[in-house]
Structures are given as structure tokens and as C-alpha cells.
Write a structure and sequence with these properties.
The protein is mainly α. It is 48% helix and 3% strand. It has a domain of 125 residues. The radius of gyration is 22 Å and the shape is extended.
Length: 188
């Protein structure tokens, strides 16, 4: 029974976030006639601001300014939250006044192209200096053959505290189809 309660609560939290994003998209579309593709990117900016403030820095969303300003330490949960919400709101209002308001009577294609442009620009601002990187990287080249072989990658002495990419494979073929089967990946 405890498992059901856990999954209901965790699913409800994820559902609430998805519902909030959907509601934001709906309100934007109903109010301006534009599907704001940058809606999630602007919300992501708020998350980055909060995370950086908790690490003691403020990220500047303006190209040409320093990527971040060191604040000397964590400023606290609620001040970080308030600044993140205010910064995100300011960016959303600026986007509305500079971009979306002018597109109210524009052709549909112009609206879509502008929304994609805002999305790309917003993601470019967020990832200017890549502050949220994997804390450790390891790579190894393998030459695959038809015979089964176990490969391992030594991760000892690696900081695995912030891994967002997990495991990935990059392949290079010679213009011929090939298959790679991955089985039993373990992080030990």
C-alpha cells in the first residue's frame, strides 16, 4: 500500500508541473494567438537562476555581460526563489512587449518562425557558459567485432555527483548498416 501512495504522490507532482506548462501555453495562445515555443525555455531559466543563486552566483541573461556574478555564497532558499521568479517574469514580460505583441496580426508562418527564433535565442542565453555540466566524463574507444566481448570503463576517482548524460554511444560507420547491442549496463 505504501508503494501505491508513493507513486500516486510522485505522479501527481509530475502531473501538476505538466498541467502548469500546458495552462501557460493555453493562456498564451488564447491571449495572443501564438504558440509560445519558448515557454519551457523561459521556465528553465528560472530553474537555472535558482540553482546558481543557491551556489552563490547570479547568471546574467544579457549577452556581453559577464556570464555570472559571484555573490560570495548561498543567499538562502526563499530569496533565491523570489529572485528566480522575478527574473523569469521580467524576461517573459520583455519577450511579450518586444516580440509577441508585434506578432498579433502577423501571418501564421511569421508567428511560428518568431516563436522558434525566441526559443533558440533563449536556449542560447541559458547555455552561454554551460554551468550545469556533467561533473565527470570518461570515454574509451572500442573496435567492435562479430564476437561477443565485455567492455568496461574505469570510473574510479571520478566525481559522479552531477551526471545528467548517463551512458551514451557514439558510432561511426563506413556507409554500411550495422547494429550495436547493449546489455547489462551497470554503474558500480
Amino acid at each position: 500500500m505504501a508503494d501505491y501512495a508513493y507513486y500516486i504522490l510522485s505522479g501527481s507532482a509530475a502531473g501538476a508541473v505538466i498541467a502548469a506548462f500546458a495552462l501557460g501555453l493555453l493562456i498564451t495562445h488564447q491571449g495572443s494567438g501564438i504558440v509560445n515555443l519558448a515557454h519551457g525555455a523561459v521556465a528553465t531559466w528560472g530553474g537555472y537562476v535558482y540553482a546558481d543563486l543557491r551556489r552563490g552566483a547570479y547568471p546574467w541573461p544579457v549577452p556581453g555581460l559577464p556570464a555570472r556574478t559571484d555573490l560570495g555564497g548561498d543567499i538562502g532558499q526563499w530569496p533565491s526563489f523570489a529572485i528566480a521568479v522575478l527574473t523569469t517574469t521580467a524576461i517573459a514580460v520583455l519577450l511579450h512587449r518586444v516580440v509577441y505583441r508585434r506578432l498579433a496580426r502577423a501571418p501564421e508562418l511569421a508567428r511560428v518562425v518568431a516563436a522558434i527564433g525566441v526559443l533558440v535565442a533563449t536556449m542560447g542565453i541559458i547555455g552561454r557558459d554551460k554551468p550545469h555540466y556533467d561533473s565527470a566524463k570518461a570515454e574509451q574507444k572500442f573496435t567492435l567485432t562479430k564476437d561477443w566481448k565485455t567492455y568496461s570503463l574505469d570510473l574510479s576517482n571520478k566525481d559522479l555527483s552531477k551526471i545528467k548524460s548517463g551512458f551514451c554511444i557514439v558510432t561511426a560507420g563506413q556507409g554500411k548498416p550495422f547494429a550495436v547491442q547493449i546489455d547489462d549496463v551497470k554503474y558500480e
